[in-house]
Write a sequence for this structure.
């Protein structure tokens, strides 16, 4: 069999599902312009029926019309490759040669001369070979190590310079990149998104009305959709599109920066008086114009400059860096952070760890940042916490009477009341259990029926002592 039969089907299995979609399903789309997902049936192929341009899919071969020939996936690939329908994957020959010309000879000669004991390869013509034939090629004219000025050695297969760069120098092909504006409304491109972090990065640009993140699939930024069966190499339901990754997107350097004002460009100072008139600022008062434009008091002044078409022509934005936070970061909240679900002041001016981020409200509140069940607007986060602040926030505190105690550097430190060594405290607890009492680091121990008094720290319960004791045993 040298060509595909007139009527044929191919069986899909668990082991070949990915390759099946890339070959059989793609072939049905390219050849007959009939789209099949490739998920619902065991067999797919061409049986000449009148419903689906001759293509069909069934779980039983008997359902197909015209008694089609059953092919294995390997047979299908072999036959379609012979017909030039599926391109062979390039394999670098064991012995290869590349033709030199004015555009590539320097790169090829440098490769030759990079080998030990090889030098002096300079000619712009002839061939570079993978095999070193020495300084003087026997039986060949003009041979010099890897190079020959006149001819290609017959034992070598010629490859292109592009193949040399990719498979010998291991250089990646130049990948086309897209600006954010080029992707807005562009239905000919879908983006393969590999993680929720990548999805959030696109969402944060504010350029796209994106659907939710459904895992590693292709997403259309133009239609706010995704394809559940798509992969990094298969667009599935999207027809005639190019798949790109997030690395092929040019993110603006200023996209995560807040504009807090405008200032005259250095080469536009001569337009100050005209700008003042357009903005309705009293003439000759440069300080007033800058004050209004640099301190967010734009109002009608900015609108007038925009209407006149000179705002971006004569002025440049002043950006405020907006720090980016991620789940797990410790941050300092502002005095106004008592947002959704929080009692007044409960999360104000606190060092808290971000447990979840919801960017749905990004346009109005800078996103919702969660600290457990508490949450606030992203604009109410002041900055990242310092290591010292994090250490203080994560230091476990224990109730001890009417005070709080922390364990640090071998001591139990009670707020404003002094410290007791861990060793002495544990000895005290052991004595307490055995009804033998002694002073603890010179503090008198006074017991009542319900509580313990340690120095001037009153109302200490046995449960509090036991909790501290058990914790110190884990250190």
């Amino acid at each position: 069999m040298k060509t595909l039969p007139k009527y044929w089907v191919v069986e899909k299995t668990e082991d070949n599902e990915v390759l099946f979609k890339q070959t059989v399903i793609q072939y049905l789309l390219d050849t007959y312009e009939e789209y099949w997902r490739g998920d619902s049936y065991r067999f797919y192929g061409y049986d000449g029926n009148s419903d689906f341009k001759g293509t069909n899919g069934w779980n039983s071969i008997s359902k197909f019309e015209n008694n089609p020939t059953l092919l294995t996936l390997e047979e299908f690939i072999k036959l379609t490759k012979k017909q030039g329908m599926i391109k062979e994957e390039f394999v670098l020959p064991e012995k290869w040669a590349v033709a030199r010309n004015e555009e590539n000879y320097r790169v090829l000669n440098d490769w030759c001369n990079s080998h030990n004991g090889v030098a002096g390869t300079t000619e712009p013509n002839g061939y570079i070979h993978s095999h070193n034939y020495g300084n003087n090629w026997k039986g060949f004219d003009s041979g010099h190590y890897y190079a020959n000025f006149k001819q290609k050695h017959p034992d070598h297969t010629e490859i292109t310079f592009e193949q040399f760069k990719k498979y010998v120098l291991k250089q990646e092909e130049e990948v086309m990149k897209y600006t954010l504006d080029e992707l807005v409304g562009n239905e000919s491109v879908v983006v393969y998104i590999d993680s929720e972090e990548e999805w959030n990065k696109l969402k944060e640009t504010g350029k796209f009305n994106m659907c939710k993140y459904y895992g590693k699939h292709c997403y259309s930024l133009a239609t706010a959709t995704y394809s559940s069966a798509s992969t990094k190499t298969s667009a599935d339901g999207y027809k005639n599109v190019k798949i790109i990754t997030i690395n092929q997107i040019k993110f603006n350097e200023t996209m995560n920066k807040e504009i807090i004002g405008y200032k005259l460009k250095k080469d536009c100072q001569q337009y100050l008086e005209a700008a003042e008139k357009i903005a309705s600022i009293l003439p000759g008062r440069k300080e007033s114009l800058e004050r209004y434009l640099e301190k967010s008091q734009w109002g009608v002044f900015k609108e007038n400059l925009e209407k006149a078409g000179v705002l971006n022509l004569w002025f440049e934005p002043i950006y405020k860096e907006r720090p980016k936070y991620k789940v797990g970061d410790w941050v300092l909240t502002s005095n106004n952070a008592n947002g959704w679900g929080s009692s007044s002041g409960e999360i104000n001016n606190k060092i808290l760890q971000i447990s979840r981020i919801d960017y749905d409200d990004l346009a109005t509140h800078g996103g919702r940042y969660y600290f457990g069940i508490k949450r606030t607007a992203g604009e109410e986060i002041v900055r990242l916490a310092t290591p010292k602040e994090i250490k203080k926030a994560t230091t476990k505190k224990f109730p001890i009477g009417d005070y709080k105690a922390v364990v640090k550097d071998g001591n139990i430190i009670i707020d404003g009341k002094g410290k007791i060594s861990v060793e002495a405290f544990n000895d005290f607890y052991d004595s307490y259990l055995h009804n033998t009492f002694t002073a603890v680091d010179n503090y008198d121990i006074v017991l009542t029926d319900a509580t313990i008094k340690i120095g001037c720290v009153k109302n200490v319960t046995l449960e509090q002592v036991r909790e501290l004791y058990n914790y110190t045993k884990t250190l």
